[in-house]
């Protein structure tokens, strides 16, 4: 039995208006207890073809699949928290249930803190550190300091609590007798996607948690929408050998598609049958171009539109796979009628490896409603439990590891290494390589592309600097030791 606050997912949430009398489209609800029976009628806030009954935003249907809510330790819903979550969903045309789920988890964590410390979340006495916001900030900082929580998680959790209280006060749901925090303005410098410098005025608070990140010159990673590690040739070769031994067609094609195009996980895993339906002999040229992004059925990071260049020989393998008995058998297990909008890659149970943003919001009318959001978990599990052990054995490197996203960086570095002579020429030829790589990786900012060209040089210079500095320090220490003798 759960004895702590928690986040749970509702398979389906339909916002409704309650009434004592029936109306068009309403449903009778009967609640019984030992003492009494309560009957009321509920009507969805949005009936097809009609305006919303509650005056809410017309773009919202008021229906959500797998909606996160927060329950108190006794199992009752935390009313204010759940109203906040509903409002966050309602104000967006396409709410992201994964992000909303994280907000719910953060609020549940705050509720647990309040319960454990026996703190009244609505009491804001004159003494600052008697207020729940200051106490929670201090607790999170302690957790970070002793290593029980990462700075990033601590920063996010405190920011969630600040936004929650801010929403409550703006909507006049609470009236703290003293301020939950003290605000101050700061200026932050940042670069946009095109590399232009900007200064942005933001407001911070004295309960906010900072997460300063220092750049590590010896870090063998490339910053490209996340920290990615380009795999060296031997590692790539070992992964491909492992895939051949494991003979899992789907996982093999998924890896090949990422390694040969630089596509991200959500892009590869949301390919549809329609994208590989054209017979290869009807395609002219040596590569096949697939449009990705909003309106295409293929997800991209930050809903960016782009074109994927797939080698024709790989496209042919994808086309053949889509028509294979194995692929058809997996689609039959999915419980959805055969159609061109079906995902190309499904697990052995007929479930998608990754659900598109659009599909996460749908309430399924056929087949079973998925219990949780599919976001590549099966792929990552297969990599961890099946591929990595084989690669470690082949390379005799017990510490070897990789993430699927590293295949993107590997594609970028493979392209750079293949064009190293053109880059060495310099001038217009080097510029052409940079532009080509930026186009293949959909970079709006060429500074991101340059990280690939500078990667090996920076590592070499960092190693050289470290070796020279270490040698200098060693001489100083030896001289110092000698003089003391």
Structural commentary:
By secondary structure, the protein is of the alpha+beta class. Among the domains are: 232-401, no CATH class; 407-484. Helix content is 44%, strand content 14%. The chain contains 15 helices and eleven strands. A hairpin with a 3-residue loop joins strand 8 (222-223) and strand 9 (227-228). The protein is globular.
Individual helix count: 15
Average pLDDT, to the nearest integer?
86
Oligomerization state = single chain
Report low-confidence residues grouped into runs of 5 or more: none
The number of E-state strands comes to 11
Strand content: 5-15%
The value of Rg in angstroms is 28 Å
Describe the SSE topology.
Elements: E1 6-14, E2 16-19, E3 27-32, E4 37-44, E5 63-71, H1 79-90, H2 97-117, H3 132-145, H4 151-170, E6 183-191, E7 197-205, E8 222-223, E9 227-228, H5 233-246, H6 249-261, H7 265-269, E10 287-292, E11 306-311, H8 312-322, H9 325-333, H10 357-360, H11 377-395, H12 406-418, H13 420-425, H14 427-441, H15 446-484
Antiparallel strand pairs: 1-5, 2-4, 3-4, 6-7, 8-9, 10-11
Helix pairs in contact: 1-2, 2-4, 3-4, 5-11, 6-8, 6-12, 14-15
């Amino acid at each position: 039995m759960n004895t702590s606050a928690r986040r749970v997912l509702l398979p389906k949430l339909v916002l409704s208006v309650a009434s004592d009398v029936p109306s068009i489209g309403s449903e009778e609800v009967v609640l019984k207890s030992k003492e009494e029976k309560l009957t009321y009628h509920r009507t969805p806030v949005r009936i097809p073809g009609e305006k919303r009954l509650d005056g809410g935003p017309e773009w919202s249907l008021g229906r959500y699949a797998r909606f996160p809510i927060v329950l108190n330790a006794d199992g009752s819903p935390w009313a204010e928290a759940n109203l906040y979550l509903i409002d966050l969903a309602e104000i967006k045309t396409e709410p992201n249930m994964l992000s909303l789920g994280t907000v719910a988890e953060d609020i549940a964590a705050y509720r647990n803190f309040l319960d454990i410390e026996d703190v009244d979340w609505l009491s804001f006495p004159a003494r600052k550190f008697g207020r729940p916001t200051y106490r929670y900030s201090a607790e999170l900082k302690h957790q970070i300091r002793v290593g029980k929580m990462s700075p990033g998680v601590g920063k996010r959790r405190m920011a969630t609590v600040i936004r929650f209280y801010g929403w409550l006060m703006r909507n006049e749901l609470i009236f703290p007798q003293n301020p939950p925090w003290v605000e101050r303005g700061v200026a932050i410098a940042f670069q946009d996607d095109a590399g232009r410098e900007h200064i942005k005025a933001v407001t911070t608070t004295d309960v906010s948690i900072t997460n300063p990140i220092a750049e590590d010159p010896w870090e063998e990673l490339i910053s490209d929408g996340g920290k990615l590690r380009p795999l060296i040739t031997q590692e790539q070769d070992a992964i491909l050998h492992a895939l051949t031994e494991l003979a899992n067609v789907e996982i093999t094609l998924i890896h090949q598609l990422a390694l040969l195009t630089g596509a991200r996980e959500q892009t590869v895993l949301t390919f549809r049958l329609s994208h590989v339906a054209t017979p290869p002999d009807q395609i002219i040229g040596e590569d096949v171009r697939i449009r990705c992004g909003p309106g295409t059925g293929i997800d991209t990071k930050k809903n960016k539109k782009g074109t994927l260049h797939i080698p024709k020989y790989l496209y042919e393998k994808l086309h053949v796979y889509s028509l294979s008995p194995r692929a058809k058998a997996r689609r039959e297990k999915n419980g959805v009628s055969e159609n061109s909008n079906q995902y190309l890659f499904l697990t052995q149970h007929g479930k998608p490896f990754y659900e598109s943003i659009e599909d996460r919001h749908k309430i399924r009318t056929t087949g079973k409603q998925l219990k949780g959001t599919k976001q590549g978990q099966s792929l990552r599990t297969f990599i961890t439990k099946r591929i990595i052990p084989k690669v470690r054995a082949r390379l005799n490197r017990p510490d070897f590891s990789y993430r699927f996203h590293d295949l993107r960086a590997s594609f970028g570095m493979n392209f750079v290494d293949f064009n190293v002579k053109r880059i060495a020429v310099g001038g217009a030829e080097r510029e052409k390589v940079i532009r080509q790589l930026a186009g293949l990786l959909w970079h709006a900012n060429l500074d991101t592309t340059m990280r690939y060209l500078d990667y090996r040089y920076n590592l070499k210079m960092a190693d050289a600097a470290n070796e020279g500095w270490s040698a200098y320090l060693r001489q100083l220490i030896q001289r110092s030791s000698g003089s003391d003798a």
